[in-house]
Amino acid sequence: MAVEQFLHGVEVIDIDGGARPISTVKSSVIGIVGTAPDADPLAYPLNTPVLVAGSRIEAAKLDMTGLGLGTLPSALDSIFDQCGAVVIVVRVAKEATDSATLANMLGGVDPVTGQYKGVHALRAAQSTLGYQPRLLCAPGFTHQRVTGGVVTLTGAAGSGYTDGTYALAASGGTGGSGAAATITIAGGVVTKRTITNSGSGYSVAPTFTLSGAGAGTGATFVPGLGNAGNAVVAELVGIADRLKATIFADGPSTNDAAAIAYAGDFGSKRVFVIDPKVLKTENGVLVTQFASAGAAGIQARIDNDLGFWWSPSNQLFNGIQGTERPIDFTLGDANSRANMLNEKKVATIIREDGYRLWGNRTLSSDPKWAFLCVVRTADIINDSLLRAHLWAVDRGITKNYMTEVVEGVNAYLRHLTAIGAILGGKCYADPDLNTPLQIAQGKVYFDFDFTPVYPAEHITFRSHLVNDYIKEIF
């Protein structure tokens, strides 16, 4: 309320109170990273998020020669076969070797300019373009499993070192490159070893050495080689956690065992794997194409047409003519190839009244987040509430303030229930958390719950043969 002052007349006071409406954040923005050597460098500068608003005309500048070089031209075409999506494109340089191109994809932060590079450039999309990508893919760079990578790092803990986290120097080895690791020292001894990059292609493991950790002695670092998860997917998981996004990753597209082994490399609710590749005609020639971009396009289409709480499974996969290897499927057949892959958390593509994406499950190790649509429902609701309450920051904590926030959230949850996005939900302020001590420190807590809509993945009809209806003859 305004400060009282003498006034002989009439005034109007604007009361800035009451619950605020909450809008759902845009869920269908696709973020894609890849190569396009023949792109217009002015339209698509390297390591820079570029907004393509559902236009094939804008996407055509990724392929100025019409030769379709790199991964981005065909991926954008596959996305736009599904819908007119909003796409954030990040182009990286294609190098003479695959390992150098992979390094560009993994990117990081330029130490001089502070610019995000590679897949990390997706993190800059919100601040530079005003759109946050929610559906991430990098076709051509997410299907490989690492062979001959450093997967374990053991050894003696040593003593007398300076506490802290240090990078190990990797050198030598045969046939491979790229391995990197860090260690954590506490109480003068090595307490943790972290492989930050497994590298690939080693037949003999590299040597890891420690420097700059004081005058300690005795620590050893013994690497073990083996197969490891895809490096680009591993890098994207951390980015997806920050963006509350889903990674659409490609399986190896070789055989079922390889696809299942690939799925076992990750336990993240952020990863959704599709296997195998699809067949598609490009420039009059039938070619194989990674399925992840098209799957992301399907999810964007479903978000726009039906809602973010819908599963992309059992939805038509437009623009394709088949799959790289046959995927047999029969409704009710638990031993079909499609069902076997789905059971191991690998989505696939079936032919049933057209080609359809088939599979609901993420790679989450926690069954609570098994279904992709449940993960995305939680993400969108959480982020919508977060972004809708900037107005509430730094306001005075009063009874009216608490009521306004709670009422605003409950109105939003009622709206989501009414449109079928959730089954129900409620927001409340827990007095056990909102103690005088906490409020005196400027801290206030609001709890909310909701029940997502689960997909009908397994439908059972129980058949009963009875004689009850013989009487209908007479």
Supply database-style keywords.
474 residues, alpha+beta, Rossmann fold, 3 domains, nine-stranded mixed sheet, 11 helices, 25% strand, Gp18_domIII_N
CATH A-level architecture of the largest domain: 3-Layer(aba) Sandwich
Number of strands: 24
CATH class of the largest domain: Alpha Beta
**Unreliable stretches:** none
- Biggest sheet statistics: 9 strands, mixed
The total domain count is: 3
Rg estimate, integer Å: 27 Å
Shape: globular
End-to-end gap: 84 Å
The structure class reads alpha+beta
> Number of helical segments?
11
What does the secondary structure layout of this molecule look like, with pairings?
Layout: E1 30-35, E2 50-53, H1 56-59, H2 72-82, E3 86-92, H3 98-106, E4 108-109, E5 116-117, H4 125-129, E6 135-137, E7 146-154, E8 157-159, E9 164-171, E10 180-186, E11 189-197, E12 207-209, E13 217-219, E14 222-228, H5 231-243, E15 246-250, H6 256-263, E16 271-274, E17 278-282, E18 285-289, H7 292-305, E19 315-316, E20 322-323, H8 337-343, E21 346-351, E22 355-358, H9 372-388, H10 399-418, E23 422-428, H11 436-440, E24 447-452
Parallel strand pairs: 1-3, 1-6, 6-15, 15-16, 16-21
Antiparallel strand pairs: 2-3, 4-5, 7-14, 8-13, 9-10, 9-12, 10-11, 17-18, 17-20, 19-22, 21-22, 23-24
Organism: Massilia atriviolacea
Domain Tail sheath protein C-terminal: 364-464
Domain Tail sheath protein subtilisin-like: 227-363
